[in-house]
Amino acid sequence: MSDEIKNGEGTALTSNFILDFIDEDLKEGVYDHVQTRFPPEPNGYLHIGHAKAICIDFATAEKYGGKCNLRLDDTNPVKEDTEYVDAIEEDIKWLGFHWDNVYYASDYFDFLYECALKLIDKGLAYVDESSADEIREMRGTLTEPGVNSPYRSRPIEETRDLFRRMTEGEFDNGAMVLRAKIDMSSSNLNMRDPVIYRIMKAHHHRTGDKWCVYPMYDFAHPLSDAKEGVTHSLCSLEFENHRPLYNWVLEALDIKNPPRQIEFARMNVNYTLTSKRKCLKLVNDGLVSGWDDPRMPTLCGLRRRGYPAEAVRAFVDKIGVSKAYSVIDYALLESCVRDNLNENADRAMAVLRPLKVIIDNYPENKTEEIYIDINPSKPEKGKRAVTFSREIFIEQDDFMLDPPGKYFRLCPQKEVRLKGAYYIKYASHETDENGNITAVHCTYDPESYGGDTKDGRKVKGTLHWVDANNCINAEVRLYDRLFNVPNPSDEEGVTSFADNLNPDSLKILNGCKLDKSLDGVKAGDTFQFMRQGYFCVDTDSTADRLVFNRTVALKDSFAKKA
Q1: How many Cβ atoms are within 10 Å of 255's Cβ, its own excluded?
Q2: Measured by CB atoms within 10 angstroms of the end CB, which terminus of the chain is less buried, N or C?
C-alpha cells in the first residue's frame, strides 16, 4: 500500500482524507503535534463497529508519533457501570492497542460545571422549566423554525440561582434543564437551544452521590477533548451535524487551540447488529446467552468464538476510511478470519458425528503411529504423531450404502484413503433394531501406507479419522450467523428480532471424538479440524469436559442456505 503506516501490532492505515486534513493542519501550523482519543460510553460492550473507530484513533496517533488516550464518557450514571469499563479496556488490549492515559468525563465534572456558569454569565445559557415534550414541540422541524422558550429571556442572576439549586438537589428529575442560548431558527436542529445539563438523581459509578445534575454529551464532549489537549477529534458520521454545536461550545467559552472534529463513515455489517441498545435487547430478551455469546457482534463474543484480533484489524484495513455510507458483507470478515487461521492454526483430526469402522484384516492388538503435518504453512513445526488401530471413527456422512453420483467417500463401490494412513474398502456393516447403521466393516491394503501403492492406483476420496481406542470426547458447538436476514435492524425494528433469528445459528453436538493429542488444551486455543473448519476451545471447557466452538467453516456456505 502506498503511504501506509503500521503500529507495533501490525495494523495498517492507508492514506485517507483524515490524514490529509491532519497533514494540512500540521503544515499550516494549526497544531505542532497530533493527539487523538477513543471515547466510548461505558454503557455496554464494544462491538465490531467500534473496532473501526479504535483502529482509526490509535493508528492515526501512532502515524504522527502522537498520543491516543482512552476516555470513558460517563455522563449518564443510569446506564453506566464499572463492568463495562473493565470490558472496554480488555477489548482494546485484545485488539492490540495501548492507550497513553485513561481519563473519564467524570474527571471534568467540576470543570464542566464552571463552564456552564460561564455561559450563564455571558447570557448564553438559561434554565428552562418546560417539560421534555414542550421543549421537543418548541424545537420545530426540518422545515419549520423553532419557537423561543418563555424562559429564554430569564435574567442571568435568576438563571444562576436556579442552576445552583438544581445542583443542590432542590428539584425533582425533569423539573428543569439548562439550555444553551444559540438560535431557534437555525437550519440545524442541534443548534436550536440544546439542553446542556439535566437533573438526574442517580448514583454515579465513580463520583457517587456528589452530583445530581449531569452534562449532556454534546456539551461534555468538546470540552473534555479540549481539557485533554486533543488536536483531532475523530468521530463517526452521525456526529457531522453536531459539529457546529461542538465548535460553538469551544468558541463561546474562548477555548484556546480548540480541537478539530473530523467524521468518517461508521462500519455497518450485514446479518448483524452494530447498536449497543439492540445488542442489549438481545441479551435482556434471552435470545443469546450473554454479551460474550459467540454469535454476538461484540468484541468479547468474537474473541470467545475464536476470531483472531489480527483478522479483525485486517478486516478494518480492507474496508478503509471514507465518508460514504456502505454495508459490508459479513463474508468479508469471515474471509479475513479464514486467511489468518489457515496460516496460523494447527491441524488436528476430529470426528463430530462418529461412525465406527472396524478394519477386519488389521491385527487386533496392533497400534501404530501415523504422522500428520502440524501446520502445512509452517513446516518448521514438524509433524504430530497420532495412533492408528483396528477400530477407528469416521464421519457418518462419509459412508453411504447407495450414494449419488460423484460421491467420493466410503461406499460399497469405492476405495478411499484414510488421511496419512491406508486405503480401505467396504466389506459389510452392522445395524440396530431400527435399521440404522452402527458400524462399518472394511479391509485395508497394508501396502498403501501414506497413500502410495506398488501398483500406482489412486483414489479420489480422503477421509479424516480418529483412533477409537485412543481418543477423547468433547462437546462441539457449531455457530453460524445469528440472523437470517441481511438487515435485521430494518425488519420492523427491534421487536422483530425473534422472527429474524437464524434457527441454525447454534447446533450442539455431544460425544464428538477428538485426537488424543488435544487433551490438555486451554481456553482460546485454536485449531483447524481437518475437512471441518476452524475451532477454538471455549471458556466453558474444564479438564473433565472439553468444549469447542466452531469459529468459521472452511468455506462460506451461508449464502447457499439463506
Answers
A1: 17
A2: N
